[in-house]
Amino acid sequence: MSDRENLVKKVLSDFDNVIVDLEALNDYYIQTRDSITTKKDRLSGKYELAIEISKLMDSVYEADPEDKLSRLESIKSTEIKPGVLVQDVIDINFNSDQDTLQYSLHDDYRGAEFDPSTARKKKKYVYNQENIFAKSILSNIIISFEQFLASVYETLVLYNPKCYFEDKKIPVCELLEGNLGDILGKMIEREIESNMFDSLNALDKIKEKNSVDVDRFIPIRKEFEEIYYRRNAFVHNAGCVNDKYLDKVSEKYKSSVSMGQKLICDSYYLDNAISVLYKIIASLHYEILNAISSDNEHYDSLANLGFEALQNENYSLAEYIYGILRRHRSFQYINKAMYEVNYINALKLQGKDVVSLLESFDVSIATDDFKIAKECLLDNNEKVYELLTQTYPNSFCALMIREWPIFIKFRETEFYQKFISEHQEDFDKFIFEKEIDDE
């Protein structure tokens, strides 16, 4: 096996490994997010009255000194649930000498779930959990990125060491004390370590040295940089905007925030952050393959990730991956057509306009499977049924029709049910695949 073949094997293995890590990270994220949401909902339900009372009591402290007593009197008569006033639950008094509120719960409301101090602590506990969780996910996103980038960087150095070491010199004493292979290995290790201290700068370096550009087809770097610096803000500045954040992120992101403002890091943001991580990893993988391999089969690793994204309803990621692959020039028609179908499908399933893309997608000389795929994209379900009836199972087998994303809309129609009934025996069969030993 040649050195280049070994490097390609390394690239494919590195990609497989990082995808396994990303899947584990995504699973951890979903499970922990749902657990915290459940706790938050349970807390809101159990301590609902106490939380509302604590907010009202806080408003007394926030009032101007001369308005505190009047504010207190007004909240006593506030209805906190139908037919129940604050004063029905709790007696509150203001000690002006100590500038404190003192309270006692009425007999019918002596449980901890009605205590505003307890409710405030519980609420803060969940709030702190959310912050720790956000910090953890953001940190793991950057760690996963930097680990994969380090493997990409190593591959590029091994592939073309001259452009990285053209100005480097080896002291004669090192040559005398060790063998050349070990010396070069240590040089490569030092080169990688020194550049991983600033991973965004490392992206610039591999673009300069090897024309590896994560923004080649679809811009992603600016969005990832915002996540990178938001992570820094959470780790070093309690999640608040600082000078570095404002200095580093693009205008799109800093125009809506101000110095000292708490940055939002809710489930919507984190969902997108993980999606962006997948995208920049996919882009790096495409770029490294483009730099060292001329075999189009190696891009199957990326196409498979896009297909899994379609199956898992991660249509934004599928759109991104197939958006890259459809622009690759050296693919044969069958590959280009397949990537075009999946790209259009990913757009369509997000509710985006695909009319012009479908109009330009010519299948007049294509095989039956692509003609059927286009009818699926056009939602011509009766035509899909007719073509499947004529070409089954040579075009698509039962498993494909039952599971592939191109048939999502078709499976919702009466024509699908009719087709199943005509081939019931095939559709009742499933495949139990051989388990792969990870060891």
Tell me the count of domains.
3
Structural class: mainly alpha
User: How would the global form be characterised?
Assistant: flat
User: Number of DSSP strands?
Assistant: 4
Q: Can you put this structure into words, describing what you see?
A:
- By secondary structure, the protein is mainly α.
- It has 22 helices and four strands.
- α5 runs parallel beside α9.
- 26% of the residues are buried.
Question: What is the element layout, followed by pairings?
Answer:
Elements: H1 3-46, H2 48-62, H3 68-76, E1 79-81, E2 84-85, H4 86-89, E3 90-95, E4 100-105, H5 116-159, H6 161-165, H7 172-177, H8 180-196, H9 199-210, H10 221-236, H11 243-248, H12 251-254, H13 267-292, H14 300-311, H15 315-325, H16 333-349, H17 355-360, H18 368-377, H19 381-391, H20 398-403, H21 414-422, H22 424-427
Antiparallel strand pairs: 1-2, 3-4
How would you sum up this structure in a few lines?
This protein is mainly alpha-helical and 439 residues long.
Provide key terms for this protein.
about 450 residues; mainly alpha; 3 domains; two-stranded antiparallel sheet; 22 helices; 4 strands; about 65% helix; about 5% strand; flat
